[in-house]
Amino acid sequence: MKVLLINPLFENLVEVPGPEAIPELANVAPPLGLLYLAAGAERRSHTVEVLDANLEGLSPEQTAERIAQSRPDVVGITTTTFSLVDVLLAARAVKRASPASRIVLGGPHTALYPDETMTFPEVDFLILGEGDLVFPQLLEALAADSTDLSAVPNLVWRDNGRVRKNPVAPFISDLDSLPFPARHLVPFERYRSYVTREARLATMMSSRGCPYKCTFCNHQHMGGGFRPRSPQSVVAEMEECARMGFREIMFYDDTFTIQRKRVLDICDLVIARRLPVKWDIRARVNTLDEEVLDRLVEAGCVRLRIGVESGTPEILKILNKGIRLEDVARVFALARQRGMTTFAYFMIGNPTETREQIERTVEFAKAIRPDFVEFSPTHPCPGTELYEMALAQGVIREDYWREFARNPRPGVKVKLWEDVLTRDEILHLLDWAFKSFYSRPSYMLQRLSKIRSMSELYRQARAGMKLLLGSVQK
Hints:
By secondary structure, the chain is α/β, with parallel strands linked by helices.
């Protein structure tokens, strides 16, 4: 079958307040989930194309022009709640250009709101949970002109006008059995990150899921518990990326460092094979020590991304973060001593949080001296414990995410946690937090000492001026 997988143009995302410069600092990364699906379909001898309309800046109308030429049998689109408007615009463009194409949606949104999503006539199928094994099964059934799709797990479909939900299969336990993402199907030389020094950026997953229970995370809907790939599989994919010309790899694992021995084994294999790639990871401070950091650095890991969330123990407890501030300070100091670039992520406007606690968080961010910091307004996401708490306590008075799933429209803004502070007060403090952190002369000197090229200086200076002179988008 002819299969087209689309990453749509994101022009109507649900709005999250933040500095005007933040979109400029965002990664332009390959659509990793689609590339996994593409690899699985190619393994079954289907003809697959991947259209990254977001990378190419293609509107729904321009996307329709592309589709009119290829007339795919099946079109797959990854869906999040935040991107729902753009996903449906893309789906409608597909149906206009190629009415016979079957449209399949998957991703976090479909798992949360299957009933609401199937009310849209342009959507033919949903895949709930992981689609790596399920999507090829659906293609096989459609290729055989089967009208009974009840044997395809995780599938939501219409049977003579009646919506049916098939049983959901367990999460994939043997991730090593999956083919590597089909990176050859996208213009991989065009993907970049604000912080990378190399031109070509690859993204990877060495594991799926997370064992931690932070109240603001919805990993339970898509993660299925922590499931690691073997060190041999991970490093084999890194080696493939190096052969393709990638020089930087960004790992998208929720937490790369959960299993200490696995991390050390991965590093040992990278060192032994002398892979010419730099890489960065997301980690938790309670999983890092001096030996692990030393081995990561030796193996080419140059960046750590760490969710700190708050600089006060009482807010960390409410968020069920499970870390200590003294461990945060220790890890950032150790990483700095080893020359690693560090990112610290914080949330502002948490349950019961006061202005004074936010000020303490900003001072803590300065004290641990990360290279980059991101402050985000706390906005309970669909499917999280935090969102259920907000509804139960009346902080958010209506299930507005479900209503949005029923009636998606542009211009919707996330609701913040307004119990102690109002939205305006939170956004004022958010603006102050960024400017207070980034405007310090000591920070500017710290950044200048690490810049290695004029182009890097230009990019960071331009973004910095926007950050300091701009305001928070409300």
